[in-house]
Amino acid sequence: MTDESGPKGDPVPASDGHRAVFLSYASQDTEAAARICTSLRNAGIEVWFDQNELRGGAAWDAAIKKQLRTCALFIPIISTNSRARGEGYFRFEWKLAVDRSHLMAAEKAFLLPVAIDATDEVDAWVPEKFHEVQWTWLRGGETSPAFVERVSRLLAFGGYMPPAGAAPALTSRPMAPAVPTPPVAQSPCSEQSIAVLPFVDMSQNKDQEYFSDGLTEELIGLLTRVPELRVPARTSCFYFKSKQATIADIARALNVAHVLEGSVRKAGNTMRIAAQLIRADTGFHLWSQTFDRTLDDIFKVQDEIAGSVVRSLCDALLSATLPARTAALNSEAYQLYLRGHFHWNRRSPEEFRKAITFFQQAIGVDPDYALAFTGLADCYSLLPIYDRASQATETMPQAKTAILRALAIDDNLAEAHASLGLILAIFDFEWLAAERQYQRAIELSPNAPVPHQWYGELLVNTGRFDAGLAQGRHAVDLDPLSQVANLALGIQLNSARRYTEAIAQLQKTLTLGRNFADTNYFMFEAYANKGLYQEALAAYARQKQLDGEPATEVAAFKEAFAKDSWPGFLQLRIRSLEAQGQPDCDELASFYARMGDLDRAFAWLEKSFAGRSARLTHLKVDARYDNLRADARFADMLRRVGLGS
Questions:
Q1: C-alpha distances in angstroms, 580 versus 387, 520, 576, 599?
Q2: I need a labelling partner for 29 at 20 to 30 A (CA). Which of 359, 371, 431, 556 fits?
Q3: What does the alpha-carbon distance between residue 83 and residue 115 come to, in Å, rounded to a whole number?
Q4: What are the CA-CA distances from residue 513 to residues 151, 186, 239, 631 (Å)?
Q5: 415 phi and psi angles, rounded to 5 deg
Q6: What share of the chain is helix, strand, coil (3-state, %, to 5)?
Q7: DSSP state of 323
Q8: pLDDT tens digits for 147-159?
Q9: CA–CA separation, 440 vs 421, rounded Å?
């Protein structure tokens, strides 16, 4: 085995490779590879980096092959140089690495392609296997903290990652995110902390996932109400659903000392729930119990489990007791609500519509079910954001009617206050009223991440950057593996014009879910705002591919950029977007603004305002519209969206 080559190309002894990274690159990219190597080594990561230009010979080939058989991660460096070379020793290394990857479990991360220029996945000449995993773009080999953190995470976890098919693929080349580990600067783990893992559906027909997921969420909610107890939010706990990670791995990633896990076996009106509380560092069971009940007892069982957890931790750690429920619930309505919430969590137009049906059925059974009204409102609020065919002017009034009904039933429901705040902010443009609702939601449920996230967005959009970013970061602290919370922080950093930080945050978000198209779009915006147009183009191409745009369209705007640079790209995209039946008014307005065509920019902004686009809430701080700010029409638009005098 080798680290770097010796004076005459002789192998230098190194470790057994179980935590080593192998860098493979074309000789023209040596400087960029050296920068990546140095950044990883400075973080304490062992890197096998061959700097011998005279490759070959039996001894050297044997050493390289041995490294490739034993390294923990293989990083091929991809560029215009590697594309131009149809032959090269690095291609032999790529082949050996791909061959080894075929012997590995689907959940194991081994190949980590890195592009060091504007080379895109579609244009790169690489093995097909490289297209099945997530790529990273490091301009000139300048390595971001997010990338170093990701490599550290994979090495700590033995390289395990979710299967490529774990989430619906939006492209023929799905990208599988890595299972994360704690950030390098993570604070010490509190003894008063617990993660609730998704309970497993053990029912005979495996058709009760909505019920087991709902039980898990209820337990998270109940335990979150204990002020002294730190409980990661739902998204972070559910990140590990169906993933091959140990209790210790999960506890490290979520920075908790204890884990609650269990299973549900449901048949008809009866259920068996098994639960166990585990000390993460030792694996010892602090408490376990099996409950055989009817569905009529579901709320009692939830309280029993949560109460048992608190009692198990109480003597040594907690002085608090579990707060009592604020309202009784109907079992049939509750199951319908769980079905609705299950579909709502899947976040697509089709799933939102399914959720609406179940929430309405729950309300039909129990007309005073405040949470069901809140779920209904959230579906109507988010539909126009996720579905271009849905009009905010139609869905948002329905959302407001539902949420006001929820608050009339239960004015102490934190989720309802947060939802009303969102409606007031992104549709009514009533900023002060929205702020009061967010503050009330945080007062009622300080450990819920969503109110902090939405409040942070409001503060940033109104120009209070430091306060807004503090709220955004707190949301990520509460739900560290949430793609939405991490993306929101990246958007806030971009709005605050902290572009380098925004790009790093968005790169981190990509490690949580490569198929999240919106992350690539806001990466495009951050790069464009910073003037890095080649990188912006690559991010835009990835977003459009994930959104299902035809490959010919993507290739066309790449060609336009190659021919006429940034203006050529903007002009072609404007023509293409305007030809669509339902174009994105905000995107067109921003492209015209970047081109300096003020009249057309304002014309599309007016259409965006008429449709109550949520992106108008960024108008005061949005760098895309800087060319319009000296125009009196812009001041008038700011006034109409409540952001100007």
A1: 15, 21, 7, 20
A2: 556
A3: 11
A4: 16, 21, 10, 40
A5: -60, -35
A6: 55, 10, 35
A7: P
A8: 887 788 777 666 5
A9: 10
242 vs 542, which has greater pLDDT?
542
Contacts of 117 (CB under 8 A, 6+ apart): 79, 80, 139, 140, 534
CA dist., res. 377 & res. 283, Å (int):
42
Concatenated DSSP letters of 348-412 = SHHHHHHHHHHHHHHHHH-TT-HHHHHHHHHHHHHHHHH-TTS-HHHHHHHHHHHHHHHHHH-TT
In one-letter notation, the amino acid at residue 319 is S
Answer yes or no: is pLDDT of 492 > 90: yes
H/E element, 191: strand 190-196
pLDDT in tens, 565-577: 999 999 999 999 8
CA distances from 194 to 306, 308, 567 (A): 11, 13, 52
Q: How far apart are the C-alpha atoms of 344 and 347, rounded to whole Å? A: 6
**546, containing H or E segment:** helix 533-546
pLDDT (tens digit, 9 = 90+) per residue, 273-307? 888 888 888 877 777 778 787 877 777 777 777 77
Maximum pairwise Cα distance, the chain: 81
CB 265 within 8 A of CB 287: no
The residue written with tokens 């920019």 in the block is 601
Looking at residue 502, its pLDDT comes to 95
**Average of pLDDT values for 318-330?**
54
Tokens of 61: 């080939």
CA–CA separation, 365 and 166 (whole Å): 34
Q: How far apart are CA 505 and CA 635, in angstroms?
A: 31
The 3-state secondary structure of 220-263 reads: HHHHHCCCCCECCCHHHHHCCCCCCCCHHHHHHHHCEEEEEEEE
- Which residue type, as a one-letter code, is found at position 153? R
Give CA separation, 360 vs 34, 189, 295, 365, 407, in Å.
Answer: 59, 42, 21, 9, 17
Average pLDDT, rounded, for the chain: 82
Q: pLDDT: is 114 or 215 the higher one? A: 114
Integer-rounded Cα Rg, in Å, for the chain is 26
Summarize the confidence of residues 30-48 as an average pLDDT.
88
Q: Which amino acid is at 25?
A: Y
Q: Which residues contact 526 (CB under 8 A, 6 or more apart)?
A: 490, 493, 494, 499, 502, 503, 506
Q: Which residue has the higher pLDDT, 551 or 8?
A: 551
Token pair, residue 277, equals 């509380």
The answer to whether the predicted template modeling score (pTM) of the entire model surpasses 0.70 is no
For 11-117, strand residue ranges (E) read 20-24, 46-48, 73-78, 114-115
The answer to whether residue 579 scores a pLDDT higher than 70 is yes
Q: How far from chain centre, in Å, is Cα 636? A: 36
Q: Specify which residues 368 forms β-bridges with.
A: none
Q: Where does residue 514 rank: exposed (0-12), middle (13-18), buried (19+ CB within 10 A)? A: buried
CB 595 within 8 A of CB 574: yes
**Helix/strand number for the chain, H first, E second:** 25, 10
